Structures are given as structure tokens and as C-alpha cells.
């Protein structure tokens, strides 16, 4: 059976001095989404980039913009990210006290609603809300930095989450974020992942376009 596993290059690993070039590379590649990492230096120990950079990306990007917020109190910025062109807005489970309300607020702004879980968070905590979630992002590294090694436990989490999604008859997509390479992409897709984020593996390659094609090919 062939499946269409989506590939989402993470712009965090792009060359910011040549951002337009790297955005055009994604536009012209077999990539499906742009993955945009927003960090606040509080929820995670790093600061990436903010609104003006996302605005610049949106101006040129011709594909779905998948924004991953690694920030505390994300509710403050939901409408701002909608205005900046986000199509999918993902918040962290660990950063939300009222996740149900946050997801409704994201959808009310016309975006798909995602929930990311850190490596220490069990997928079971999402069971009562899975039908309200368009995308679960399983962090396969500790959020905050690109270029880290993939955590092997992730495969079990994908299996568990897939089982839960099917049992609850939900349409939720499973996204994997962190340390994705050609070594784990097929196994992740086979386990049930629908979207693979890849940063340093794509942008660190000699030929990023060919690397995206390769990821696409091995995961179908
Ligand atoms: C990590 C970010 C990831 C990161 C992935 O906090 O959420 O999206 O860009 O980078 P790689 O693919 O290099 O692990
Ligand atoms: Zn991310």
C-alpha cells in the first residue's frame, strides 16, 4: 500500500542570510510543508526568530505553513500568527493550562490546531482531546535546537498514538520532529507517522532538493 507521507523541511536550519533562496528551494522541491520553529527562550532554552521573519517567509512560501510554537502562554499570539500566514498552529501540551480552549481559539482563527508533546510526555494524556486535534507533533528530540540525535523511544509513541487515533475514529495527523534522517524516515512512516519534519538533514546536505526527494521516495 502506498501512502503519502508529508515532508516538512524545518526553516530553522536554513541560511538566514539567504532565506529567500532557501524558501524558493522548498517551493520548487517535493516538500509538502514549511515547518517554522518559534522559540521564546523561556519554554525552551533558545530563541529562534519571531514575527518579522515569519512575515518574510509567508511572503514567498507557496506551500502550507506549519508553525511550531515553543513558547509559554501561546494564547496571547494566536490571532497574530493567523495574520502572519500560519495554516497550522501547534502549541505544546506542556505550555497550556486550558488546552481545549486554546485549540478552539486556533480553529476560530481559521487554522488547523496542533499539539506537540515533549519526549517525557506520554501520548495517553491526549486521549480525552484527540478528536479536537488536527495534528500531534511527537518531539523526537528535546525541543529548542536543531541537529540533535533522534530518540529511539519515539517509535513506541507513534504506535501508541496511531492506535489511539484509530480507536477514537479521529483524523489526527502524526508529525515527527527532531533528528529525522534517511536512517529512520521509513520506519517512522511504517509505524504510522504522516508528516516528517527535517531540518539539519535537509539543509546540511550538499543537495537539499535531492535530499527532500529521497525522503519522499523512501517513505511512500
Ligand atoms: C527543535 C525543532 C525542530 C528542529 C528539527 O526544537 O522543533 O523542528 O528544527 O531539526 P533537526 O531536523 O535538525 O533535528
Ligand atoms: Zn519544530
TrEMBL record:
Catalytic site: 37, 177
Pathway it works in: Carbohydrate degradation
SUPFAM superfamilies cross-referenced by the UniProt entry: Ribulose-phoshate binding barrel (SSF51366)
Binding site for substrate: 10, 68, 144-147, 177-179, 199-200
Cofactor: Mn(2+); Co(2+); Zn(2+); a divalent metal cation
Gene3D superfamilies listed in its UniProt record: Aldolase class I
InterPro entries in UniProt: Aldolase_TIM, Ribul_P_3_epim, Ribul_P_3_epim-like, RibuloseP-bd_barrel
Domain of life: Bacteria
Entry's cofactor comment: Binds 1 divalent metal cation per subunit.
Keywords from the named record: Carbohydrate metabolism, Isomerase, Metal-binding
Amino-acid positions noted as binding a divalent metal cation in the UniProt annotation, renumbered to this chain: 35, 37, 68, 177
EC top class, as a word: isomerase
HAMAP family reported in the protein's UniProt record: RPE
Protein's name according to its UniProt entry: Ribulose-phosphate 3-epimerase
